[in-house]
Specification:
This protein has 97 residues and is mainly alpha-helical. The protein has helices at residues 3-57, 61-94. 92% of the residues lie in helices and 0% in strands.
Length: 97
Amino acid sequence: MNLDAIGMLLITAVVGFITTIFWRWVSTVSDTSKDNSKKLEDVKSEMGLFKLHVSENYQSKTEAHKDMTLIMETLKEIKGDVKEIGNKLDKKADKPS
């Protein structure tokens, strides 16, 4: 074998090796892309279920207003009870023993 044949054989081997590496990389990228597409579909499905859950269970403004009114009324009752207890304690403290 002469030097030109060895050089050509070496170049062919290097090109073949580089081509193999390139196609292996393309395969890996393709597999990753397929995996990402599946994950995206899963996220879309979960998001759809979450939107359905929120639409079924979301508190409306009317319900929130009713709840806030109930809370405020209860707090006013508690405030009145505390004032009443405070007045009773004041009366008891003012009484001579």
